[in-house]
Design goal:
This protein is α/β, with parallel strands linked by helices and 498 residues long. It has helices at 13-27, 31-49, 64-78, 95-105, 140-150, 197-200, 213-217, 256-268, 283-289, 301-310, 324-335, 345-352, 367-374, 378-383, 385-396, 431-444, 449-467, 481-488; strands at residues 9-11, 55-60, 82-87, 111-112, 124-128, 156-159, 181-185, 188-189, 203-207, 223-225, 245-249, 273-278, 294-297, 313-316, 340-342, 361-363, 399-402, 408-410, 416-418. It comes from Rhodanobacter terrae.
Length: 498
Amino acid sequence: MPIHPYSRDLHTVGQLRVMERAALAALGISGQELMRRAASAALSSLRRHWPQLQQICIHCGPGNNGGDGFLLGVLAREAGLQVELVALSAAAHGDAALARAAWEAGGGKVQLWDIDGVLPAAELHVDALYGIGLNRAPEPAAARLIEQINHSGRPVLALDVPSGLNTDSGDCPGVAIRASVTVTFIAGKRGLHTGRAADQVGVLELATLGVPDSLYAATSPDAQLLVAAALPPRPRYANKGDNGHVLVIGGEHGMAGAARLAGESALRAGAGLVSVATRAGHVFALNAARPELMAHGVDGPQTLMPLLERASVLALGPGLGQASWGHALWLTALDANKPLVLDADGLNLLAREPRRFTVPAVMTPHPGEAARLLGVATREIERDRFAAARELAKRYAAVVVLKGVGSLVADPDGRLDVCPWGNPGMASGGMGDLLTGVVAALLAQGCSAWRAACLGVGLHARAGDLAAQRGERGLLASDLLAPLRELGNGMSGCGRDT
């Protein structure tokens, strides 16, 4: 499908309802005509993805999403397809009732779903059970139907939103459709891009239904998708001093690898100089493995102070630990008032001793760390990742990267971007340390905290996708270093698709 100029924009359910009313007024059409446009877009998507199939089963709820399904049935039957239609209830509401009448007027039969029933035979199932408004677990009968669709072994086309997925948050409070393709209507929905949505949405397409661009231009999105970007080429007269000095502080006993990964990724992301303040026992190994890192053994604040004075940006937390050594270095580093990236035990210590930042700061928690920082259960973070990221940014006066599927980047003013890249292979040790180094390097090269976080998250995830082309399982954090360098220089990854 062609890329819409506003396809990066992501909206809440409240915004989408306002946009739908504005679209009807701007186009001068009825709700039923808008449903017909949605049905036509769905049929086009169906034909594009499964051009050979002849038999489909459409599952309709009582609301407008079900109305889209009924009209898809009308159009599919007119196109020569065999259509079975299953409805959750004997009645439909509003425009959906008109759509159901149109299906029945052409001789279409409706099979009412029974919780003990079985699915009709079909080559494809179409999900038109719930629309954008569902914010609870599906009712038992609908849940049973969703489970049967998911276990049918057949592909699934979801209309607008996979049923059971919260459109605002990407959470699934109960069972949810696992779609092969989701064709979403009018505008992007933020919950389709983070959290559990990754396992439910499948291939995502946007069908704008002919809504004029002026409507999008008049609506401020709640969030946006990141765009692929890189830093501009360096001036030919550049020297290492122009590109900042990152100091990685971490590497308690047994955790030298975390400090090394953060330091090496900072080098690969373009920092001019990178020092590592770590346990003295790690210095020889770090110097031997990566001589470009300036490794220093520090036993406490007194030996850390000279390194802090020379650094322009701090990467605080990789492998730091929460014992007396790590805590003392953490306090000393924060008191230096340098721009910094805070991760891992740097965040865990912050949860114990909260403070607001007065210097450019980027925090990179995973959901468990975010829960500790906000004093809630991890489940609460996943229930609404958008609210959690924004609250963290506001509470700590920092740019926050809430890691996970569809990582979120939020600033204290409420701005939020969503990362559309990344893969399950990146769920392995060291990936967070790598991100810390990348973001710190970008800060050191003059990026604002917001720019460093957005660009760093994008480069990190895209490098992960390139590295995963040889397989996701078994992917190592260090596998990202080569593609990270290529992408950071605006290269495509040696001809590979980014």
